[in-house]
Design brief:
Distance between the termini: 57 Å
Structural class: alpha+beta
CATH superfamily of the largest domain: Histidine kinase-like ATPase, C-terminal domain
Low-confidence stretches: 1-13, 376-383
Order of helices and strands: HHHEEEEHHHEHEEHEEHEE
Largest sheet: 5 strands, mixed
Length: 419
Amino acid sequence: MAKATGLRVKTMRSLSDFFAKQFSRTFKIAFTVVFLLVNLTVVVVNTLYINHTVEEQNESLVEMVEHLIEFESEEAALTYMEHYGHTHQVFLRYESVERFFETKTAPEDDARYNIEIVGQKVGELTVDNAQSNLTLSNMTYLLSVNAVLIVIFLFSLIGIDKALKKNNDTILRDVHSVLQRTRKKEPDVEYSFDDFARIDEALSEAFSKLSRLREEHKRNIEALAHDIKTPLTVVTSLTEGVFQGRIERSEEVKTSILEETKRINDLVEKIIEGDADEADETIDLSGLLHERLSLHQPLFDKKEQALRKNIAQGVALRAKADELKRLIDHLLLNAHQYSPESAGISVSLSKNPVRFMVKDEGEGIDESLKKKIFPSRLDSGGSGVGLLIVKRIVDKMQGEIELKSEKGKGTTVIVTFDS
């Protein structure tokens, strides 16, 4: 490594002071501030609650006094106020034209209420809750809560201090170990944090690359796993047709089942061993499309879907046979799944340029959802996975894919390749 041009080894030694003093002190101050904020919140909330409760009690007292004066007598109201002040430890003063009442200790605050009978003021009541049972019990509660919080704070501070010291010691030991090793190897060379920063950048880049590779591998596995669904559906459909008597148990059917079973096996091997690329070859796309349509025919028959075909003969394409099968199968399966019973499904193939089209009579895709039809990642079991696989195959073959759809009028997918 080159000599330091920025911060040198002596700066690394200052890490001891930073971790032992500055970092620890900053953390403790922050913890104390949080504790004080929590404590202040408890006090404020409790004070608001008590003030609201006191106000409700005072209003109830005023209502009771007014009731007694109106339906009993002012003397009864005075007796009630005397009893209320004694039992609740509330200081009261009542003044009217004819009467004056005051507890042994005169009220000092200005919580005054008008005593009104039928809208007319007949007196004034002053209430002092400073020494009331409710206020005293609240103060006891606050003191108890504060005592508990202080104990928790002190024990937490001690625990945090020990944890910080333990972690700081570990970091410092690692730093000193690095310093000792580098000085033993190159005693005359000084190192800066810039050197360590470059090492960190290189490691971060390597880890990012590894993460991207893992994510790509995961997406490939998800795609291959979804691909298994298509041949499995074909095998299931053919087998059901044979057992139900809808399909004759012929050599052609047996061969089709064996071929699709082999495709499943090949896909499983790809998942286990990795997705190995096949070599391109000239494919008779017309023949391949007839073959795949024949295999999917039992699926369409099961839902009584009419299959309309317009396939040009002699259409050839330089590509991988397995990828073309996957592309055709996913588009046919989508059309089958999203079209209702007795619906029509059109399949066409033309050349110059090579254009493959599948049109269904399903529900169609809402305009706002068209941009989401090709999601950025695969979610197993989610909608759009098959179309995403189709798009990847088309992109890989440098073709173009077009989606036309209108809500309630079906969907058309057009794939175009250069001849």
